[in-house]
Amino acid sequence: MPIDFPTRGRKPSPGAGISSVGLSARPGTILLSALFLAVFLLSGCAAMNGLRDGSAPLEVHPETSLERNVFPVVKGGDVVGRLAVVRVEKGDTLPDIARHFSLGVNALGAANPGVDMWLPKAGECVTLPLRFILPDAPRKGIVINLASMRLFHYRGDKRSPVVATYPVGVGTDERPTPTGQMRVVRKVTRPTWYVPASIAEDHRKKGDILPPAVLPGPLNPLGEHALYLSRSTYLIHGTNKPASIGLNATNGCLRLYPEDVKRLYEGTPVNTPVCIVDQPYLVGQRNGIVYLEVHASAEDTDAGELKKMYGKLKAIEKKTGRAFDREKIDKVLAEARGVPVPIFETEQGRWVEQTIEVRHPDKLSGRPEMPELKTGAWYVWAADLDDRTEALRLAAIINHQGPQIPARVLSKGSGYRVVAGPFKDAGEARGAAGRLKFDLEIDGVIIEPSLGK
What we know:
By secondary structure, the protein is an alpha+beta fold. The protein has helices spanning 34-40, 94-100, 105-111, 197-205, 258-267, 303-320, 326-335, 388-399, 426-440, and strands spanning 60-61, 70-72, 79-81, 84-87, 125-128, 131-133, 142-145, 150-155, 162-167, 170-171, 180-189, 193-194, 213-214, 225-229, 235-237, 248-250, 254-255, 273-277, 281-286, 289-294, 341-345, 356-358, 378-385, 407-412, 415-423, 445-447. The strands form seven sheets. It has a nine-stranded mixed β-sheet with strand order 2-9-8-7-18-11-14-15-17, with helices on one face. Strands 1-22-4-5 form a four-stranded mixed β-sheet, with no helix packed on it. A four-stranded antiparallel β-sheet has the order 24-25-23-26, covered by helices on one side.
């Protein structure tokens, strides 16, 4: 017997009075808060559009053959990894693809302008920006580039150095991650989060009262592993919000996917140096080819860093005796996709670094599982929408909250209802409704088991 979710009591009033982006503001639609958009919808995606630097892939490679994290560091080289593409399958979201391939959400979106973050089309090609220019910093210990939202961990000896690299979530404009030299002073598995007064006050203003300390578990934002830095109150840690990796979404700490922080934790001893830089313009060379990687839009131009970039390019021009193509450089600066683009070929270089296509994995690791509907369970009615696409997008956004709030779309008359659940009891349902209110400004209505039979 299908579960019927009745129309009873007040209708959900999500985000009343909030300006919408991408969702219309008429009756029966939902408005997303500016806060949530800043944290989760910094996207845009479109397949390739000039990022390939070779001919079209001739064969599809197993996705396991594509290295995501660990690369050899060649003497005199600044570029590691390679670009790849994967075809979207029904039900994929870009956050799911990003996590499977150890990419940040924003990095994947910037490399693919035009592809829907939450509802990409099946069969669409998505570029995997797995080529990186190493930051201009000493290659020792951990180096983090805030502009690229990427961590680089240098390991190995002088004869065979390697770098492990992972995407990170970084601080917001209001609470930025500091730059400078630090070190790891201690490591903790299953850390307790002692809530800073400033964060507790932010939550209190929204009606969410946090305890003084949050014990290990699914509600702990530090995840399962934490590396404490010598600069007090700053950490490198895991997360219970994986869809925020690669965004300006933290209170200043550095946040990694759970599987990535585990590897970093296990391979990083206490006293490892940590250097945090903010380099939006990166110049690198490999195999006689010069690459430019840009992470700053025209509106966010950093004059000092831009001057450094042009200084490096002029030094290469002087050394090689050949001039760069200024139009090509201007194009890379204007697009700012965060992907190393070949801009110059020396006499020793050849354009041979072909983009490959990888087979879609059988299952995207970390993709939220959707539990079946159950009679006798608790639910939260999140919204009624006229448009099915908007309803599916909202359900996907809710489903990627951390910890997960399972959500789906049900037909309701001529419209569509977004319902979260099932939840085992009233406490779980109230907790989910509270998080929907705090994170998304959605005034959900709790549906009791007796109403869902």
